């Protein structure tokens, strides 16, 4: 049986144990997505680093957030843009953003 992945502490400071391969219990999808989005917004919302590609992404994100299943739809959207986000974070030498993206990938995708 696969070992649980290490994960960041929960928002209350208690250690979090990932149960990804069995039930997804203990994985905070919203917090993981929010951490990546905080970093991503810093670039895609800025006129000097945003572009038409990221404008389209933001439009699709708004659609996902307005859907009947916003968590699932946002997760799918982020999953389908993982490599683009990684490239953006690498281009800006943003190790913190890359670390947040890695947690999202390993726990949620």
UniProtKB/TrEMBL annotation:
Transmembrane segments: none annotated. This is N(2)-fixation sustaining protein CowN. Is required to sustain N(2)-dependent growth in the presence of low levels of carbon monoxide (CO). Probably acts by protecting the N(2) fixation ability of the nitrogenase complex, which is inactivated in the presence of CO. GO terms for biological process: nitrogen fixation. Keywords: Nitrogen fixation. InterPro entries: CowN. It holds the Pfam family CowN. The gene is cowN. The lineage of its organism: Bacteria, Pseudomonadati, Pseudomonadota, Alphaproteobacteria, Rhodospirillales. Belongs to the CowN family. HAMAP family: CowN. NCBIfam families: N2Fix_CO_CowN. It comes from Roseospira marina.
């Amino acid at each position: 049986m696969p070992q649980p992945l290490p994960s960041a502490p929960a928002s209350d400071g208690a250690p979090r144990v990932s149960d990804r391969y069995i039930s997804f219990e203990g994985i905070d999808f919203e917090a993981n997505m929010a951490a990546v989005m905080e970093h991503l917004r810093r670039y895609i919302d800025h006129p000097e680093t945003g572009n038409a590609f990221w404008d389209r992404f933001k439009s699709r994100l708004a659609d996902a957030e307005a859907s009947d299943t916003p968590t699932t739809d946002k997760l799918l959207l982020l999953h389908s843009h993982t490599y683009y986000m990684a490239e953006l974070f690498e281009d800006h030498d943003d190790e913190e953003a890359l670390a947040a993206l890695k947690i999202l990938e390993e726990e949620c995708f």
